[in-house]
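Saturday, quiet lab. Running sequence design on the structure tokens for the scaffold JK sent over.
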């Protein structure tokens, strides 16, 4: 997505890629040390209030800690592939 490319370019979103026995994973988080991150968060909250209202916004957003490392798997490796 274009949004992710812009966030990476501005150092708002951080990503790390690593491999383990189960496949290749990407860890990501919002950069807590970049002041521009807080401007984007405030802008996003204001945009959400305008679009969805107070009650609707809390239904639409993910309320987990954005500064904590989250991860998702990008490829899966089986133990048989590693043995060969």
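Result came back. Writing it out in full:
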């Amino acid at each position: 997505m274009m949004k992710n490319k812009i966030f990476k370019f501005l150092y708002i979103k951080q990503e790390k890629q690593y491999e383990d026995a189960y496949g290749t994973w990407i860890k990501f988080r919002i950069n807590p040390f970049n002041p521009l991150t807080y401007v984007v968060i405030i802008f996003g909250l204001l945009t959400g209030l305008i679009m969805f209202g107070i009650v609707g916004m809390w239904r639409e957003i993910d309320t987990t800690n954005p500064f904590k490392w989250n991860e998702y798997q990008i490829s899966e490796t089986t133990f048989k592939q590693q043995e060969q």
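Notes for JK: Residues 2-83 form one domain. The chain has a mean pLDDT of 79. Ask whether to fix the surface positions before the next round.
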